[in-house]
Amino acid sequence: MATAISARIKAMENDELMKMVELWREHGTCRAVAAAVEGLTFGEVQRQIREAALRGLIPFEGQKAAPGFKITKATVGPTGVTTQQKPAENPEKLEPTVRKDHYVQRVSTLKNANGEKMAQWVITHQDKGAVDWEAIFENAFKNYERPPFNITPVGTADEHKINLFPCNDWHVNMLCWKREVAVNWDLKIAEKVLGDTIDATVARCPRAKLGVVLGGGDLMHNDDNTNRTAKSHNLLDCDGRFEKGLEVAQRLKIRAIDAMLFKHDEVLVVVLKGNHDEQASIAIKHYLKAWYRDEPRVKIEMSSALLWEYDQGKVLLAATHGHAMKMRQLPQIVADRFSEAWGRTKKRYAHTFHVHHKDLVTSEGGGIIVESHQAPIPQDAWHYGEGFLSGRSMQIITYDDRYGETGRVTEAVMDG
To answer: Which CATH number does 133-412 carry?
Structure first.
């Protein structure tokens, strides 16, 4: 008899079962339904509710099978329905969900006696180097206010003049302790000191038609939350999480470009990669492109090349960070890579950074002057301990496209 009832219930349509589910919800328990409806027994009501649960027709939490599993048993009690679940027959169709800040560490697979995959468990691990770009861009400029008016330079610009502003080796997010390196340095100090030095340097430069904000690489000290360099895996002294540092770096770059807009008709922005910020430099470049999308006077150079070149009149300018191409290689590399520009110019200058100190490796007799530049930041513990020596400054170099370099503004950074 029980077998016949079970077979009849399994053959019922979903609509019929849903009518029983509605009665069960209305009266609260299977016994209450059997008592209220003539001709129904407690056992039949319970079997119909169980069948409805197995088919997933009771849509409340607990009846939905977990990914890779199916409901195989339902128990109807006084307070509701509980289910048992087993691996589904075709879990191959299920794609595991991995959080954006995790990576797959290992995968465990359950197979039956025939070797068929029954279920799969994906074990993930948090990626400490993961970067939440959305949060960075959302928070970076919450408190940054651009001037409430159009930035318009005062006076007439000399169309032959080019002001080059090297913004190199800022190493934002670097941490220094005075008892180790004779000066304290962190994110708060860096934003104040570098920001004030930007304003002071640009204020002293002459009015010109074109200003070049040359990001010379290593804008950031760390490129992710591992706080190690990508190639050598050297451990870095960092003030805070990567996101905090990148927000400060973005504000400082905007500050430099906005300041240059007061002195120039056009501003060209170049962001070169360094060995400390190979990935962050890409994010900064694209963010600046979006930030100044409605400012026709600002052009963001989108090339990903490690060597940059610009020529105007008789002047050729080139730059690279210096971690890949070395200073002594630059004359022949620039002459070969930019042979047409080399041929039509007379005054040629190549700029490199990375070493944090000023150096000249070629004379005018070699056809191009190559120089490295100081950084505006103090030395970290490793460089200080190794005995490296360098001053700290920012500068703007003025070129005339007819005569070459005609002036230079240098702003010394005296302390932190």
So the answer is: 3.60.21.10
Tens digit of pLDDT for each residue in 279-306? 899 999 999 999 999 999 999 999 999 9
Q: Any idea what DSSP says for residue 335?
A: H
How many helices (DSSP H) and strands (DSSP E) are in the chain?
Answer: 12, 15
- Tell me which of 42-56, 236-250, 303-317 is least confident: 42-56
Which tens digit of pLDDT belongs to each residue from 97-138? Answer: 666 666 666 677 766 555 666 677 777 766 655 666 666 666
Contact 243, 135 (CB under 8 A): yes
**Section 186-209 average pLDDT:** 93
Residue 299: how many other CB atoms lie within 10 Å = 15
Q: How far apart are CA 141 and CA 139, in angstroms?
A: 6
Contacts of 386 (CB under 8 A, 6+ apart): none
Cβ–Cβ < 8 Å for 74, 105? no
To which H or E segment does residue 271 belong? strand 264-271
DSSP string, 362-397: --GGGTSEEEE--BSS---HHHHHHT----BEEEEE
The single-letter code of the amino acid at 120 is Q
223 vs 275: CA distance, rounded Å: 9
Mean pLDDT of the chain: 82
Q: What is the mean pLDDT of residues 147-168?
A: 81
Domain ranges of the chain: 2-88, 92-126, 133-412
Distance CA 36, CA 335 (A): 97
Return the structure tokens found at 380: 């970290």
Residue with tokens 């048992």: 84
pLDDT given at position 114: 59
Tokens of 66: 């977990």
Question: Between 42-54 and 2-10, two packed helices, what is the crossing angle to 10 degrees?
Answer: 40
E strand or H helix at 89: none
Q: Check residue 206 and report its DSSP letter.
A: P
